Amino acid sequence: MASNYAVQSSFRSEKQVPHGSPSSSSSYVRSVGGHGHFSVRASSKIPASRRPVTPNSRLHSDNDESETGRVRVAVRLRPRTADDLIADADFADCVELQPELKRLKLRKNNWNSESYRFDEVFTESASQRRVYEVVAKPVVESVLNGYNGTVMAYGQTGTGKTYTVGRLGKDDASERGIMVRALEHILFHGSVLDSVEVSYLQLYLESIQDLLAPEKSNITIVEDPKTGEVALPGATIIQIRNLEHFLQLLEIGEGNRHAANTKLNTESSRSHAILTVYIRRSPHGKDKDGNLSKEKDTDGIPIVLKSKLLIVDLAGSERLDKSGSEGHLLEEAKFINRSLSSLGKCINALAQKSPHIPFRDSKLTRILCDSFGGSARTSLIVTIGPSSRYHAETTSTIMFGQRAMKIVNMIKLKEEFDYESLCRKLENQVDHLTAEIDKQQKLRDDDKAQMERMLRETQNSFLEKEEILVTRSEFLEKENTRLELEMKNVLTELNHQKDYSALMCDEVARLDSKTEISTYQQALADTTQLYEKKRAELTKQHEDNQKSIQMEGQKEIDILRLKFQEMNQLHGTTISDLQYLTTQYEDLVSEKAKLGEELNDVRQKLLVEQKQRKVTENEMVNLKKIIAENDNNDEDMKSYMKENIGKGSAFGNPLSVSKSNQSKEQCCGPRAAIAKICEEVGFGKILGLLSSEDSDVQIQAVKLVANLAAEDINQAKIVEEGGLDALLRLLQSSQNTTIIRVASGAIANLAMNELNQGLIMSKRGAQLLANIGVKTDDPQTLRMVAGALANLCGNENLHVMLKEDGGIQALLQMLKLGNSDVIAQVARGIANFAKCESRGILKGYKKGRSLLMEYGVLSWLISNKTNISSSTQRHLELCLCHLAQNEDNAQDFVSSGGLKELIRISSESSREDIRNLAKKTLRMNPAFRAEMHTELL
Prior knowledge:
By secondary structure, this protein is α+β, with helices and mostly antiparallel strands. It is built from 33 helices and 21 strands. The longest helix is centred in the middle third of the chain and has 113 residues, at 517-629.
């Protein structure tokens, strides 16, 4: 099919312009809740009614913009293949396209035809680019604006769905399909997006598998009970770096997708492929300065837009008589047709506006419930072939598209408050403010310490200067006192000289009469003048000294006064700075308290989830109350659990099944109690209790699961709800002997189903069981583990894995304990193993010496032929017979005495069927016949 499109692509141009594409310029109104609720943008115009499109309708309007929520449907015609050219050489095509009218005519015969109108009609020469721009581009642009979108391909097998949607175009970029072009378009706008992530799944045999992680199978669908949104939490989600990265992932996914060769298509897809693109974007507005900023609500909480794009490549419908599917292909075709039939029922119910839409009939319809009749913008491309041989299939595909065009979706924009981002932002702000406060506190402390140090230094300097000044003042006072004393002495002396002068004057007066009086008067006058001059000098010197002392003291006092004023000013400045820092510190503390309150509010909202987790614990309390109400049947319950977990139901023992049937009436009470618990609590919540932190809760829950696993009708539901994974986690992590024992019994019950056996082995369950068998010496636990391994031994496809995981070796090591119940289960296991090996030997697809011979099983069988129970004896005899059917084991039988034991069994075994099997083995083995002939001679 891909090659046909490639041939036609060489004749077309990549520059074709799409016409008739739906407009995406509808107006929307946004309403934002004030209490943290989601806000929704809905289309302002939804048509209340419209004229249905019928084959005979001639009227139409090109004004499709008013139906922005309607499912858009385009049809694409596949070119003729080589088989079509040969088989339909004498016949005309069953369809006639009128792309300019967007119509398609379907011929019933040579004279009659019916006309159908679609949103777009593509001829066989339409390019991949034009198909994308018309069908998918409007949906992708809507997804970039925050709306969910779906692009889906539907049609008969071999009509080019995978080519249209999933073509990689590694060699020729023009051949790229919708998936690659959509991601190229999205990544082109990656600068305004927060993240682009993808998951790639397939729905195969009604089981959801991860194409990017093939080990993940049977992924469960989870539905939000409040919003009704469907999610796949187990799917691998990978963030896309660039287009090359996406192409690598898509190539990996296509390599893991199931495909097969049928008569209709050499590469027929056997599963529905679903590519989901998750886009997260923060809406941006303009602030006062005209710069882009994240949009926020009235409370300042950032808003985030989350949208997703589904690109679905459906597997083609096929008729078994035309496709020639047989065996496993037949089963695949049944599941494909069943899921497509469920999708058709949902489309028909939506088109007829039925009150009930059967979305739950199939996992495909559950995944696509938002695409049809939901809140997503959906485009559907239906692919058809021109051949008249497939007229019925082409008619069915066209009618599917016509019904899909009647569906109108309520397109909604989902906005969420980004509490996570807000919490991180507030925490960063608190950390930043705390660091800033610590920094300011440190600077304030340093400034305070520096100011105090300077103040102390100033005070010390002031005290020193004051002491110097006081000392200087005391010195000047002493000097002044000394000078005053000297002045007094001088005055006293002058007075004394004055008295002496007066005396001399008297003496002069007395001697006036004498002759020498003139000479004496002259001498007296000189002496008086000398004393007066000396007195004047002393007085002037005293005054100068007094003035000098006063000037020096005043100068020092002025200097000290200036320094004191400077210190007072510095002290005042320090006090004002300290008050400013104190005020700033108080503001920072108040801001920190406010941010702390906001952070507490956010944390309070986040704690709501923790409260919801406690609801599970409360339900466990209710569970215990229900068990308490059935105390009258407690003894019956214990016996029932002991029978089902400990013996019969765990290992499939026929004797135990017989006993269980005999005690069926006695177990009615416990069965009713368990059914009541399941009805009131539910499977999911019971399995959720397996991960409880309370060991008592875990024990009660694992016992309930073990009892439920004993019923075949419950096993599939337990595995689907994740019960098997939870039990394996308990084996790996729990240290409680009771939990390990009962969990092993529950796994043994599940291991009775062949599908579950493969799951257990793929999840390394045998390795966990083998490790427990090696570590523990509790007989009851070993009995459970041996029973589980014995059930796995009954599947010949798992023998090699059992050997690699150590399951066979661990099973044989349990024989050392010597417990009869454990030996019985080990004997059953090796009997199952030998039976599967002998079946493979007889059918011819197995050769070589038995794996059990390598572990010395034959010698143990021969040495333990007595002192054992009848059921164990039966398993040992069967094991010997099956091992003897392998001719490569004949030499070991002859050398170890196994042949003699086989001869004894043929005549002495208590069961006729075992005696006949032993005789048949002796007759068919040439080595045994030769050895018996030699002994007779």
